[in-house]
Amino acid sequence: MATHVINPTRFHYTYGVQSEGIPIRSGDTIVAKTRDAFGMDETGAPMPEAYMQQVAGVQLRHSNPTVGPFIIEGAEPGDLLRIEIRSITLNRSWGRSRQGPNFGSLTGEGPGKRMLYNPPVPEIWYDWQLDLERQVGTLQLPGSHLQMAEVPLAPFIGSIGVAPAYGHVEMTLTAGEYGGNMDCPDVAAGTVLELPVWTRGAYLQFGDIHALQGDGELNGTAVEVTAEVTLNIELVKGRGAAWPRLISPGDIMVLASTRPLDDCVRIGQIELLEWLVTEYGFAREEAWQLNAQVGSMRIGNMVDPTYTVVSRFPRRYLPR
């Protein structure tokens, strides 16, 4: 069991089987510094071009640079990666957020699409000041009655995933059964993320740390920051899953990502039901009845190329 301390000089903008990677083993720990969603480091310096993933003949979208990939020895399709998120330590005293044209929950559009009669949302940047000692963020609101908002910080990993199945490649801005840009605030320190393995070696990547974000990531960005992230990786052989799962002190969760939003709900609920039946000993109909009364859901994002819904079941109703 080794600890890999990474100060990256290469960042990726796609999830998939890459031509390079960092080999690790089950039980190893990763400690790595991330850049923010716009490519800036903890000093505010932009991403050097030499650090950027390059694909011949392809223009990549330079959003959400990820660390990795980490190639897990022995990982095969049908296995599961258990990723214990040990810490997310913010290392910058400020974060940036943005609203802009053709991106966000109210535009009805995605990158490069213009479908609405009304003018695009204007581009505005917001700078949050982060008090890392008190763990609060403040934002000046000169046009509002508050004048200034002070909000507790809640850091989490916005984008974390593995290579999709069948050689498919996805940009780090989107999410799916491989994980990816789920933008779920529950993917925080103290939780365990379980990702299905779809290809030999898994090719784990992560980045896009958020200091703070409401459900849905409504305007298209969170409070985007840099951090030092510590993960412990365990490979579970022969115990697959169809979608990413998350275990917190209070809940088990399924993170389903697709469009439309109601299909995210259906996919997540079916996967959660299967989990309760196959691993926790519930009768199927009884699990469905109990979950209908005690379960909960939250929207991770409804701005990216795929939306994400988190279906939750309280652990207090699981067998001891």
Structure, explained:
By secondary structure, this protein is mostly beta strands. It has three domains: 168 residues, Sandwich (Jelly Rolls), CATH 2.60.120.580; 58 residues, no CATH class; 72 residues, Acetamidase/Formamidase-like domains (Endonuclease I-creI, Roll), CATH 3.10.28. The chain is 10% helix and 38% strand. It has two helices and 22 strands. It has a nine-stranded mixed sheet with strand order 1-4-18-6-15-19-20-22-21. Helix 1 crosses helix 2. The two termini are 29 Å apart.
Give the overall silhouette. Answer: globular
- Estimate nothing, just give the exact number of structural domains: 3
Q: Give the neighbour order of strands across the main sheet.
A: 1-4-18-6-15-19-20-22-21
Total helical elements: 2
- List low-confidence stretches: none
Helix content: under 10%
CATH topology of the largest domain: Jelly Rolls
Number of strands: 22
Ends apart, CA distance between termini: 29 Å
From the alpha-carbon coordinates, what is the Rg to the nearest angstrom?
19 Å
**Taking all residues together, what is the mean pLDDT?**
93
Under the CATH scheme, which class of the largest domain? Mainly Beta
In CATH, the homologous superfamily of the largest domain goes by the name Acetamidase/Formamidase-like domains
The CATH architecture classification of the largest domain is: Sandwich
